[in-house]
Specification:
By secondary structure, the chain is mainly beta. The chain is built from one helix and 17 strands. The protein has a four-stranded antiparallel beta sheet, with no helix packed on it. The chain has a four-stranded antiparallel beta sheet with strand order 8-9-10-11, with no helix packed on it. It has a four-stranded antiparallel beta sheet with strand order 12-13-14-15, with no helix packed on it. β4 and β5 form a beta hairpin.
């Protein structure tokens, strides 16, 4: 039991996988540990820390699992975590989101671009959030996506997929989608799970959006091709890898 410490030419359509060997694509690991015996919930992390992505307050690498919870995270009940390549996001039980690490493209949602934050900072945007409760976060190399309890999604960071030209959003912007979103997974492409259906946009250079063709990028959400093995299946989980995607259906198939 770990007691927490108080510390200030492939196919481009989906196919069934008979075996899965996950590859580690980042040196940063963050694990949320819950225990009834723990005096104060916190999160643990270890690994690379060049940009402050472990919220230690410095840039020293951490060589073994260590508890964190300094500054604005002191005594916070962390309920959700998301580790990117050089920045991280955690969400507490009150629905507030905090970011730390690289902010080169505004991915920490502080209203500015550049620099890094080795100490956690709350992502605050009164105009966007308007007292909404954040329950989920998903991050990629230069982007942060947040979902509130009503299924609305907000994002900040680099936008390579604009219909006009790439843009930077250094504070959270609302993402317009007609249906309530239950999950978002972010990489160089973005997957959206809504009412059992999967949509995607962004990079599609090797068919990672599963629409049956390749394209440089899709700036607007497109529906994943369900004419193959997916008809009738309800998707429960999604994951966007570097240039591939995984879906989990309610019957346990990947």
């Amino acid at each position: 039991v770990i007691r927490s410490k108080t510390v200030g030419p492939p196919s481009h359509s989906p196919s069934t996988a008979t075996s899965f060997h996950p590859f580690l694509l980042t040196l940063l690991f963050i694990t949320l540990i819950s225990s009834l015996l723990a005096a104060e919930p916190c999160f643990f992390g270890w690994g690379k820390n060049d940009e402050g992505e472990l919220s230690t307050g410095d840039k020293n690498h951490v060589l073994q699992p260590s508890p964190f919870g300094n500054g604005v995270l002191y005594k916070k009940n962390i309920t959700h975590i998301a580790a990117g390549v050089t920045h991280s996001v955690v969400v507490d039980s009150e629905g507030r989101a905090y970011c730390f690490g690289s902010n080169n493209f505004g991915e920490c949602g502080q209203g500015v671009t550049g620099g890094n934050y080795p100490d956690p900072r709350e992502i605050v945007s009164i105009d966007t959030f308007n007292h909404k409760k954040i329950v989920h976060a998903s991050v990629s190399k230069f982007r942060t996506y947040l979902r509130d309890e009503k299924g609305n999604v907000y994002y900040c960071g680099k936008n390579d997929f604009s219909e006009v030209s790439p843009q930077l959003y250094n504070e959270p912007m609302g993402f317009v989608f007609r249906q309530s979103i239950s999950c978002v997974s972010v990489s160089e492409h973005i997957l959206i799970l809504s009412q059992g259906q999967v949509f995607g946009f962004g990079s599609n250079s090797v068919g990672q959006l599963g629409i049956g063709k390749t394209s440089e990028n899709e700036p607007l959400p497109v529906t994943v091709n369900t004419t193959g093995i997916l008809p009738g299946k309800r998707i429960t989980q999604i994951s966007a890898g570097g240039q591939h995607s995984l879906l989990l259906s309610s019957d346990g198939q990947v």
